[in-house]
Amino acid sequence: MPKNKKELRLHYKNLRKEISPDDIEEKSLAVANNLIQLPIWDKTYYHVFLPIEEQKEVNTEYVLHLLSGKDKEIVISKSDFETRGMLHFLLTDNTKIKKNEYNIPEPVNGLPVPSETIDVVFVPLLAFDNLGNRVGYGKGFYDKFLAECKLETIKIGLSFFEAENQIDDVFESDVKLDYCVTPEKVYRF
After folding, report:
1. By the 8 A CB rule, do 88 and 80 touch?
2. How large is the angle between the packed helices 61-69 and 21-35, nearest 10 degrees?
3. What are the pLDDT digits (tens) for 146-164?
4. Rounded to whole angstroms, how far apart are CA atoms 113 and 178?
5. Which of UniProt's keywords are assigned here (predicted)?
6. Tell me: the pLDDT tens digits for 12-52?
7. What is the CA radius of gyration of the chain?
8. CA distance 111 to 147
């Protein structure tokens, strides 16, 4: 099995291509249902990624329903490709969402939320291992963002697939997950 980030990225992108739209919905709902078990529901600010449909990411609509049902403050981001940074905004009824050139749905405007305010971050990923390391698309947006969050911010990966044993080429700057949730189970790191 592939063990370095480059190989894992390729492998999981290919696995994702095989997933049908029905499977995406079913597995995304199972992921959201598994989230209910986590001890995270006493927090206030929850950062959620909006899925890139073309990349067949976990559909976070179910997570959004869960959060709004619990009356939580929901934060979404806009990427700045020049700085590889992310700007965060409160999701409200007035938030306009538009896809950027990479098909990432982003808020057009809104109330800014500083990274250090965020209590829980749901993290997109391609693969992860039993130690809580993750492989994303390799641009470093989330590593940079997670490093700006407070130390006690809870980081939760969402994945359609189960953990790899270990990712070989992990860097010091890679921010580990606290949990990863799949349709089958909850991993605690």
Report:
1. no
2. 30
3. 999 999 999 999 999 999 9
4. 22
5. ATP-binding, Ligase, Magnesium, Metal-binding, Nucleotide-binding
6. 999 999 999 999 999 999 999 999 999 999 999 999 999 99
7. 15
8. 22
CA 181, distance to chain mean position in Å, is: 10
DSSP single-letter state for residue 6: H
3-state secondary structure 72-133: CEEEEEEEECCCCEEEEEECCCCCCEEECCCCCEEECCCCECCHHHCCEEEEECCEEECCCC
DSSP letters for 125-169: -SEEBTTS-EE-SSS-HHHHHHHHS-TT-EEEEE-SSPPBS--S-
Quote the pLDDT of residue 1: 60
**Contact of 48 with 60, CB cutoff 8 Å:** yes
pTM over 0.90: yes
SS3 for 57? coil
H/E run at residue 181: strand 179-181
State how far the Cα of 123 lies from the Cα of 125, in Å rounded to an integer. 6
Return d(Cα 96, Cα 107) in angstroms, integer.
Answer: 6
Tokens 């698309």 locate to 137
Contact status, residue 136 vs residue 124, Cβ threshold 8 Å: yes
Q: How many CB atoms neighbour CB 83 within 10 A?
A: 10
Domains, the chain, ordered by start:
5-188 (3.40.50.10420)
Pairwise CA distance, residues 110 & 130, whole Å: 37
